[in-house]
Amino acid sequence: MRVLGIGNAIVDVICKVNDDFINQNNLTKGTMKLFFDQTEFKKIISGLKIEKTISGGSVANSIVGLSQLGNQVGFIGKVSEDELGNKYEEGLKSENVKFFYSKKKEAIDTGTCLILVTPDSERTMCTFLGIAGKINEKDINIEAIKKSEILFLEGYLWDEGEPRKAFEKAITNSRKVAMSLSDQFCVDRHKIHFLDLVKNKLDITFANEQEIMSLIDAKNFTEVIEFGKNLKKLLVITRGDKGAISIFGDQVDENNILSNLEIKHKIVKYVKVNNNVMWGAQTQRSIQNFDISQRKFPIQFIKSHVELKRACAIANKELGMLDEQIADAIIKASEDILERNLYLDMFPLDIFFYAYCIYPVNYQIINPIHRSINKWIN
Questions:
Q1: What CATH code is carried by the domain that includes residue 290?
Q2: Which of 151, 283, 325, 344 supports an S-S bond with 174, CB 3.0-4.6 Å?
């Protein structure tokens, strides 16, 4: 087998609805909402007529593409023995992808991305990760990994505990490992672990420009080039309208985009973030697009979130689930804010943005802590 992928198994479920349905369910048209409550998600999807299902997920999509190019490929992803889990397996098999996972009935349903299409063709998405993110060591098919030339992983799936153990088991038994960093939030959240993977365990790394610059705290792209040369492993970086670049030792290959292609819609625009701030691109977008009241979050609110992160680091350290050096760095970085009152001007979001979406609020808490962690680690 040429490539075996391991990733989040998410079923894309396409349904047609009218604008009233969007409003009645308190959804924001044209956006994506992440659901954690299975009961709440079921209320949204129940009663809808399913127009089409597609076996999706970041790695799974890549694996299907490789299959369509004539490669022998396989995929490992966790689904439940339910209607959508069955459709997921059927969808992969219809694309000539071998599915190396034995389904069983789980307490949590199969991961689903519900795509609601209104008459104006606008898409509103509701995503429930379900059992997909609960992958563990027992779900890893060692024989399939050993028979594969390349193992392909995604940063989205990495997390402490069972998913991390599954990752490590898969990497240990593989011939060659490739991984996509997936998203800047994943990089910022798991920076120390991801950097270790890139330097010591991966043979091929895929990233976009923002992800790789965040990973190595690069001030400019020249530093990325130097990092790639010193890495002595294949590093592939996409750069938006600048094309893509691959680096392997001193060999640097650049590929520009085709000049005759017309981009109809560019949904996510690049933003510039000043070097003297401690937040990233997502927070910068929120600043630019949601300056609602010009009132910032109270410091007490910020510190309560930081206190929670410190408590989690202490608890996970005591349970042996978090490396002591990393835990101590998180604790010290949290204390920079809680006790030394550093970086208190690095939380720029409008307080009323919290009513719109909780995730960018969490971004602005995480970013200063991550920057401070680097100081304590080094």
A1: 1.10.275.10
A2: 151
